[in-house]
Amino acid sequence: xxxxxxxxxxxxxxxxxxxxxxxxxxxxxxxxxxxxxxxxxxxxxxxxxxxxxxxxxxxxxxxxxxxxxxxxxxxxxxxxxxxxxxxxxxxxxxxxxxxxxxxxxxxxxxxxxxxxxxxxxxxxxxxxxxxxxxxxxxxxxxxxxxxxxxxxxxxxxxxxxxxxxxxxxxxxxxxxxxxxxxxxxxxxxxxxxxxxxxxxxxxxxxxxxxxxxxxxxxxxxxxxxxxxxxxxxxxxxxxxxxxxxxxxxxxxxxxxxxxxxxxxxxxxxxxxxxxxxxxxxxxxxxxxxxxxxxxxxxxxxxxxxxxxxxxxxxxxxxxxxxxxxxxxxxxxxxxxxxxxxxxxxxxxxxxxxxxxxxxxxxxxxxxxxxxxxxxxxxxxxxxxxxxxxxxxxxxxxxxxxxxxxxxxxx
Length: 410
Known about the structure:
With about 400 residues, this protein is mainly α. The chain is built from 19 helices and no strands. Among the domains are: about 5-100, Rna Polymerase Sigma Factor, Chain: A; about 305-410, Serine Threonine Protein Phosphatase 5, Tetratricopeptide repeat (Alpha Horseshoe).
């Protein structure tokens, strides 16, 4: 039975999103060769297009792709084995008939890609390539680096895995917490780059959505890890606002001015439920998710429970003495106790290195000065924030505020 080209391409695209990591990981597990795994996975997807057009889309596309990649790997290994006299290696791989469940495969792959022995930028690049199937060009565009740079990061990561003997597995319980932290950090970094890109654009939904997908994968396959569920909750709650974050001109709309009817309330409900479940553990992601839930569940900006948010930031600071968290806490204090309290809290931070050049510092001061009626000082602070804004949309917002510092933005 034949299938139309459009239907085949759609099915293949869906399989690529959902099955790439399984196909890639299966060949890594069976051969230990990351380069071979990538070549065989690519070959399997390439062969699928004409085969499915002729024969129809298989009932289990992932199984078809794994089989095709495995056959390709065996062909390559037989050729190598004949040259090297190592036919026993081929026999060992041929003896493997039933792969483990797909979730197990993906979880092995993500934990290996995010091993703490690898540099963070290499973990990110390898995870997006091996687990998500993004091309080097897509990764390069996402992080504003050259394709050669991404290729080298991935190559170095693969070589490090081989040289250091990093096992392809989910770590044993005793080592799992440390490794999970590395996995979650990578996923959060990917989401942040999609939510607030470093290249000057305002949002990159495809990258944020990929991070959500990775977070779902880890949370589903590690159900006994509350911080994995907490990170998923945090990402869902933040991502729920994506439709309201930009105005008609592509400008950034701040949280208090967003049209809350445009928020994705199904994501909010799911995220809030996960946040409540994870709250018992009280980890850093759980506390951040609880803060996000307070914002998401408030019917209007004026109805936000700022006292609860300040209390959550206080707890978060005991776990992570982070100046960025302290700056966010200063904003919450200002909303709870008034603009002078906000200004005092910002000034109390001093000039930590982590906040050097951060546009949010003068912006938070400017907001407090505006609310205090100190219009000229507020305008100067907004202009300072505009000068170091990370993208044009945020710079434009600060310019508008500087022009009319005494009047709140509509």
